[in-house]
Automatic annotation (TrEMBL):
The organism of origin for this protein: Hoeflea prorocentri
Signal peptide: none
Keywords for this protein: Fatty acid metabolism, Lipid metabolism, Lyase, Transit peptide
Protein name per Swiss-Prot or TrEMBL: Enoyl-CoA hydratase domain-containing protein 3, mitochondrial
One annotated GO biological process: fatty acid metabolic process
InterPro entries in alphabetical order: ClpP/crotonase-like_dom_sf, Enoyl-CoA_hydra/iso, Enoyl-CoA_hydra_C, Mitochondrial_ECH-domain
UniProt family annotation: Belongs to the enoyl-CoA hydratase/isomerase family.
Gene3D superfamilies assigned: 2-enoyl-CoA Hydratase, Chain A, domain 1, Lyase 2-enoyl-coa Hydratase, Chain A, domain 2
Chain's role: May play a role in fatty acid biosynthesis and insulin sensitivity.
GO terms for MF: hydro-lyase activity
Length: 273
């Protein structure tokens, strides 16, 4: 077992429980009932993701949660406690929002695909976390919302991820009303890929993860990076960039092996190079 798998894999008191099997690293948010994204939770999750990024045994990451709430977002009690600071909390608020942004960017930049497995409520920064992951699978009773407007705190940082995953007007609907949307609406909006009954959630997620883990790690790394890079470019620049990416990809050993295996009607043997 790799160091990543060994650390905290059996520690049920850890904020993030880590389990590695067959190339799939499962990171479970483990602070129910809210699984709030406190400073400690975000640091623990980011540390686990950073370790996964350089662990060759990890090919896919799944982020799940213990309890009935995937994540209720930032820890409002933790934030409010710092209003008595000399600066009324400005430094702590900046630290919290910056750390959250860094966590989301870590997921996007991670050279491994990340799947959100959602059973329950994902709200505010918790919804942001789901929207940031590359794929999301949820139960049919899950709900998603960006309710900051209800407490006078617009969900501006969650808006970044939600507006890039959902259609514009639907993202604005969530942000302006603060009302929860059900799983069916979340799929229609573009926040999740699949909706499954609760009893099949783990099975379906594991199936998706296993399929992805069977691919060349190098190819997944190249493809994920290119996907997010081209999204932010004008059409002509996106084509220029991806033409360069595919040329470099074609020169990789795994592309040569994969094409030869296809032509020879056999299974490829990846070297991740």
């Amino acid at each position: 077992m790799s160091e990543t798998a060994a650390a905290n894999s059996n520690d049920q008191d850890a904020l993030v429980v880590r389990q590695l099997a067959d190339g799939v690293l499962r990171l479970t948010l483990n602070n129910p009932p809210a699984n709030a994204l406190s400073i400690a939770m975000m640091e623990a999750l980011k540390s686990a993701l950073d370790a996964a990024g350089t662990d060759n045994d990890v090919r896919v990451v799944v982020i799940s949660a213990a309890g009935k709430v995937f994540s209720a977002g930032h820890d409002l009690k933790e934030l409010t406690a710092h209003r008595s600071d000399d600066d009324r909390g400005r430094v702590f608020f900046e630290k919290t929002m910056r750390l959250c942004s860094d966590l989301m960017m870590t997921i996007t930049a991670l050279p491994k695909p990340v799947i959100a497995e959602v059973d329950g409520l994902a709200t505010a920064a918790g919804c942001q976390l789901v929207a940031t992951c590359d794929l999301a699978i949820c139960t049919d009773t899950s709900q998603f919302c960006t309710p900051g407007v209800n407490i006078g705190l617009f969900c501006s940082t969650p808006m970044v991820a939600v507006s890039r995953a959902a259609h514009r007007k639907q993202a604005m609907e969530m942000l302006l009303t603060g009302e929860p949307v059900d799983a069916s609406s979340a799929k229609e909006f573009g926040l999740v890929n699949r909706i499954v009954p609760k009893e099949y959630l783990r099975t379906v997620t594991d199936k998706y993860a296993a399929v992805i883990a069977s691919k060349s790690a190098l190819t997944l790394k190249i493809g994920k990076e290119a996907f997010y890079q081209q999204l932010e470019r004008p059409l002509n620049e996106a084509y220029d960039y991806t033409a360069w990416v595919m040329t470099e990809n074609m020169l990789a050993r795994d592309a040569e092996e994969g094409i030869n295996a296809f032509l020879e009607k056999r299974e490829p043997k990846w070297s991740d190079r």
